[in-house]
């Protein structure tokens, strides 16, 4: 092969490799997805939404107030929740504000409830810098009525300013249209027995694993096709 042909083949291979890497990167972005602005909201993730179940609610805070560090988070509890226990968190002190339940209600054991925790406040011993994430946990008993939307208005106080995550979508509107949506979720059907819970967890774990394997297989398959094409082009230039 002449020297000029060898040089041209090298340039072609270099360009092809660059295109291959760029294509692979674009593929990963498309498959994994780009974080949406909603991911920056204060959100709640329940361990279960089953009516009447004991659940652990995780409230996630991922940023400050206009770049200002977070000093306090106050989570207001809906009236339907009458039992709550916050999880102790390092570097934060916890205060519970109670209110009278009028008229009194009965809990799942038939005991009368005359007072409940209306809000829980986490105060930082060291402010949480903007751009760092923190998770706060509340153990609660969910109401018995399925289909109930539980809303947790949350006030985020910072060294400069605050963010009131208290907006609730009106009829016909979507939560994605709100600037400062309140964390919320809907109570689902009551769960079955312990065996049902175990089966559900196993199914979720299997589904999660299958999703990872499927993604890996798809990515490797596409990359394999790209590499195969690169080898074919290289062979043609060499011949």
List keywords for this structure.
239 residues, alpha+beta, five-stranded antiparallel β-sheet, four-stranded antiparallel β-sheet, 2 helices, 31% helix, globular
Describe this structure in words.
- The chain is an alpha+beta fold.
- It is built from 2 helices and 11 strands.
- The chain has helices at 3-32, 194-238, and strands at 43-46, 54-61, 70-76, 84-86, 92-106, 112-128, 134-141, 149-151, 154-158, 162-165, 184-186.
- The strands form 3 sheets. A 5-stranded antiparallel beta sheet has the order 5-6-3-9-10, with no helix packed on it. Strands 1-2-7-4 form a 4-stranded antiparallel beta sheet, with no helix packed on it.
- A hairpin with a 7-residue loop joins strand 1 (43-46) and strand 2.
- Helix 1 runs antiparallel to helix 2 (194-238).
- The radius of gyration is 26 Å and the shape is globular.
- The N and C termini lie close together (8 Å).
- Mean pLDDT is 77; it is low at 22-39, 194-209, 211-216 and 235-239.
């Amino acid at each position: 092969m002449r020297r000029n042909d060898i040089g041209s083949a090298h340039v072609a291979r270099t360009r092809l490799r660059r295109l291959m890497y760029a294509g692979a990167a674009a593929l990963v972005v498309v498959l994994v997805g780009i974080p949406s602005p909603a991911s920056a909201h204060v959100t709640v993730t329940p361990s279960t939404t089953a009516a009447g179940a004991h659940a652990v609610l995780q409230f996630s805070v991922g940023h400050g107030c206009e770049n200002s560090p977070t000093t306090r988070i106050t989570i207001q509890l809906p009236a339907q929740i009458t039992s709550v226990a916050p999880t102790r968190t390092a570097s934060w002190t916890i205060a519970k504000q109670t209110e009278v339940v009028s008229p009194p209600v009965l809990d799942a054991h038939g005991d009368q409830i005359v007072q409940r925790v209306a809000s829980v406040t986490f105060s930082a011993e060291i402010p949480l810098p903007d751009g760092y994430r923190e998770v706060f946990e509340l153990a609660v008993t969910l109401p018995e009525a399925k289909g109930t939307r539980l809303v947790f208005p949350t006030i985020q106080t910072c060294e400069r300013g605050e963010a009131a995550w208290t907006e609730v979508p009106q009829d016909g509107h979507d939560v994605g249209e709100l600037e400062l949506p309140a964390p919320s979720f809907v109570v689902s059907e009551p769960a079955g027995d312990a065996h049902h819970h175990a089966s559900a967890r196993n199914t979720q774990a299997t589904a999660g694993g299958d999703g990872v394997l499927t993604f890996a297989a798809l990515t490797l398959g596409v990359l394999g096709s790209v590499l195969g094409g690169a080898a074919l082009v290289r062979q043609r230039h060499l011949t």
